Amino acid sequence: MQPAAGADPPGEPRPVEGIEFRDRVPGGPGLVVLRDPATGERIMASMRWGLPGKGRSGGAVLHVRAEEIAGRGPAREALRRRRCLVPMEGYVQRATRAGVRGRFAVSLADGAPMAVAAVWQESAAGPCFAIITCAANRAVGAIHDRMPVVLPPEAWPLWLVPGLVSPIEVWDLLQPCPDDRVVVRQLPVRRRARAVAAGADRQLDLFAPGVALVRPGRPPRRQRPAPPRPARADRRRP
């Protein structure tokens, strides 16, 4: 992934070329789409995932609730001035509903990439972003009560309008996507190797064909640990 040539101001998002999609991890880099304030053209930039502050888990703010983003604080200002889209093939969600176990892959039913609503801001470590979540639709709601805001293509122009926008103008966009637009697949249970090559792309591995069911099957049996082997007798001669 190579940043495009040019003298970008410090703290500003930098467009990238030679794009290489990889998994996003909290605090790591991710690609976002936004409007260039100077030209109005859509550009793709690399930003760090997580806004400064204390999130629900004690770390950076990775997700912002749509119900709260129009309130007070930095997220409201970012909603008014600094909106972006996070492109992804889909995402992996661990089930939190009672009686449901396992990890599930959520993607669009037509196989197209998702465009997830997000906001960004500048920080001491550079530009960073947070994904906006909403109440889950019926399909995702079977495994979790929240989901990212997935915007359809016709909503992209309004969401990416550069400059000052009233939160009311974009509020109607922050809704769950229709149930029939997403597919939820259970991922197979596999043991991963401890050593993973640096920079290895695991996204396609996570989206390996699974069971197209919302409810997972019976959990795998737990193998009983083998009894301890007796110590070998000392064979040395006296």
Automatic annotation (TrEMBL):
Q: What class of enzyme is it?
A: hydrolase
InterPro entries noted in UniProt: SRAP (IPR003738), SRAP-like (IPR036590)
Q: Which GO terms describe its biological process?
A: protein-DNA covalent cross-linking repair; proteolysis
Q: Does the keyword section mention Lyase?
A: yes
Q: Where is this region: Disordered?
A: 1-22, 215-238
Keywords (A to Z) from UniProt: Covalent protein-DNA linkage, DNA damage, DNA-binding, Hydrolase, Lyase, Protease
Q: Which PANTHER family match?
A: ABASIC SITE PROCESSING PROTEIN HMCES, DC12-RELATED
What name is this protein filed under? Abasic site processing protein
